[in-house]
Amino acid sequence: DQPSLISLIEKVEPDEVYNLAAQTFIPTSWQQPVLNGELTALGVTRLLEAIRLVNSRIRFYQASSSEMFGKVLESPQNEKTPFCPRSPYGVSKVYGHFITVNYRESHGLFACSGILFNHESPRRAPEFVSRKVTQGVARIKMGLEKQLELRDLDSSRDWGFAGDYVEAMWRMLQLDHPDDFVIGSGRIHTVRQLVDKAFKYVGLSWKKYVSIDKSRCRPFETARLVANPSKARKKLGWKPTVNFDSLIQMMVDADLKKLAEKQPEGSCF
Hints:
- By secondary structure, the protein is an alpha/beta fold.
- The chain contains nine helices and ten strands.
- The strands form four sheets. The protein has a four-stranded parallel sheet, with helices on both faces. A two-stranded parallel sheet has the order 4-7.
- Strand 2, helix 4 and strand 3 form a beta-alpha-beta unit.
- The longest helix has 22 residues.
- The chain is globular, with a radius of gyration of 20 Å.
C-alpha cells in the first residue's frame, strides 16, 4: 500500500531500488488475474510514486519480462519489438514497463527497465519447469521418486543464469542516463532438451521416467521467445558467463546436495 512504501523509503533512504516484486508464476495469474494486476502492475506505480515523493534522486530498476512479447511479432526480440502479451501476468508487466517509462519521461526519474528472459538458478521455486526438472531428476537419481510429470516437452525458452542477469540489472543503474534493455542468452532450447541434458548428467534416460499431462497446459502458450541482447552488450558491456549446459548441471548438483544433506547418516542410495 502507498503509505507503507513511502514510510519504507523514508526509513531506508536507499540510493537504488530494484523492484523484483510480482506474482511471477504465470498459471496463477490466470487463476487470480485481479490480484496479479494489483501486485505486478499497480504495485510498480505505488513504488515509483513513493520514490517521487520522498527522493526523486533514487535510481529505480523495474523487472520487466520477456512474457510481454507473448505472441511474438518478430524473432529474436529486442527493445523495439512490439509487445503482445498472452497472459494476465504479461499484460501486468506491460503496464509496469510503460509506467516506468512514463515516470522517467514525465518526472525525470532515473528509472530503467530490464526486459529479462527466463533466469534460473538453484534458488528457483520448484513450480517453475527448470527447477521442477532438476529437482525431479535428483529425486529419481536418489530413488525417492519414480516418475517426473510435465505438461509440454516442445515448449521452448531462452534460459540463462540469474546471477548473470542480476549483474546486468546493477549495470543499468550505473549508467549516466537511464534506458531499457533486453537481457537474455540469445539462445533457445526446448523443455525436451532441458530434460535430456539433466537426466544424461546423472546417467539416466529421461524416456523411462517422464510422463506428459496435456490437461495442465496454459490457455495460451508463448512462441519462440528468444532475446537479442546486442544493446546490452554494447552499452552495458554485459554478456552471460554461464551457458545452458553449465546452468543445468549447477541446478542438478544443488538439488542432489540438498537431498543428500537430508538423508539419515549412513544411509545408501
